[in-house]
Specification:
It is built from twelve helices and five strands. By secondary structure, the chain is α+β, with helices and mostly antiparallel strands. It folds into two domains: 168 residues, 2-Layer Sandwich (Beta-Lactamase); 75 residues, Orthogonal Bundle (Arc Repressor Mutant, subunit A). It has a five-stranded antiparallel beta sheet, sandwiched between helices. Helix 3 runs antiparallel to helix 6. The radius of gyration is 20 Å and the shape is elongated. About 2% of the residues have low confidence.
Length: 273
C-alpha cells in the first residue's frame, strides 16, 4: 500500500453535491468532482454498453473538442470492440472496479489497437467502475491518467475500490430512466458478437474457424503463448495459423489487419441514433 489517504469530511461534501445533482444535467460533473477529492486524475468518461450494439458515450469532461473526438467519438466507431473494458462486459462483468493493467491481454501494450487508440489519446492508465442498469445496459465510468502521467498507485486503486459501491449506486439512480438510445432489452442470453461477425466477413469462406479465432486474439493483444493456452494448441500451431491467415487475407502486418478490420466494423456495427 502506498499510504494514499483522503479527507473524509471533504469527500462527504463532494458526494453530497453529487446526490443533490441526481436527475439534473450537472450530475456527472458533480460526481466527477467528488471522486477527484479522493484520487487525482486527468479526465473522466462514461460509456454504456448493451447487447453488442455500438456503445454510447454520454459523458466526458474533456474540454477540447479535438481531444474528445479522439477519446470518445472515434472509439465509438468500432475500436471499442478490441477494448479490454468492453471485453470485460462481454464476458459478463456488471460490477466492481478494474484497472487497465489488470485486465489487458499480455501483449496489449504492443498491439495495433493500443498504438492507434491509447497512444493517440495519450492515456497512460485507466480505472473503470462497472454498473449494471435494469434495461440490460452496463455502464463503465472511467478515470484516466493522460499525457505521460504516472499510473495509479495501489493506494489510489484501493480508494476507488472502496468508493465503487457508492459511485455505482449514484450512477444507477441517475441513469435508470434516461434514454441512452439503445434498442429494447433482449432479456438474458449471450450478446451478439460483432467481432465474430467482422472476422467472418473479413475472411468470408477463406479463413478456417481456428484461423479466425487466432486472428481475433491477435487483434486484442494476446501473445502467441497466451493464444496457445487459450485455444489449447501449441505455440508453433498458432504461428502457422497466423501466417496462413495473413496470407489468405493479403496482409503482412497487424497494422494492415487492424485497418481492414476497422473498415468492416464500420459496415457491421449499427451507428448510434
Amino acid at each position: 500500500m502506498d499510504g494514499h489517504t483522503c479527507d473524509l469530511a471533504d469527500l462527504a461534501v463532494g458526494f453530497a453535491g453529487a446526490v443533490d445533482a441526481i436527475g439534473t444535467p450537472d450530475f456527472m460533473d458533480a460526481l466527477t468532482a467528488a471522486i477527484a477529492r479522493a484520487v487525482a486524475f486527468d479526465n473522466a468518461m462514461l460509456f454504456a454498453y448493451k447487447d453488442g450494439e455500438r456503445p454510447r458515450g454520454p459523458y466526458t469532461d474533456i474540454a477540447d473538442p479535438a481531444e474528445a473526438r479522439i477519446v470518445v467519438a472515434q472509439y465509438l466507431l468500432g475500436p471499442f470492440l478490441l477494448d479490454p473494458f468492453y471485453s470485460e462486459v462481454q464476458q459478463g462483468r456488471t460490477n466492481g472496479t478494474a484497472s487497465l493493467y489488470e485486465i489487458a491481454p499480455d501483449e496489449f501494450f504492443k498491439s495495433e489497437y493500443y498504438e492507434q487508440h491509447y497512444r493517440r489519446t495519450r492515456i497512460t492508465d485507466e480505472i473503470g467502475i462497472f454498473c449494471a442498469l435494469p434495461d440490460g445496459a452496463v455502464l463503465v465510468y472511467s478515470v484516466t491518467r493522460r499525457h505521460g502521467g504516472a499510473v495509479f498507485a495501489s493506494g489510489e486503486m484501493a480508494t476507488l475500490r472502496s468508493l465503487a459501491p457508492l459511485i455505482s449506486a449514484l450512477l444507477l439512480r441517475h441513469w435508470t430512466g434516461p434514454d441512452l438510445g439503445f434498442g429494447p432489452h433482449a432479456g438474458p442470453g449471450r450478446a451478439p458478437d460483432p467481432i465474430g461477425a467482422a472476422l467472418a466477413a473479413l475472411g468470408e469462406d477463406v479463413l478456417s474457424e481456428r484461423q479466425r479465432q487466432v486472428v481475433a486474439l491477435v487483434l486484442k493483444g494476446h501473445s502467441t503463448e497466451a493464444i496457445a493456452m487459450t485455444l489449447d494448441i501449441s505455440a508453433d500451431t498458432v504461428k502457422v495459423h497466423r501466417r496462413h491467415a495473413y496470407a489468405k487475407l493479403g496482409v503482412s502486418s497487424q497494422a494492415e489487419l487492424f485497418a481492414m478490420f476497422l473498415d468492416l466494423l464500420s459496415q457491421i456495427v449499427a451507428p448510434p441514433v
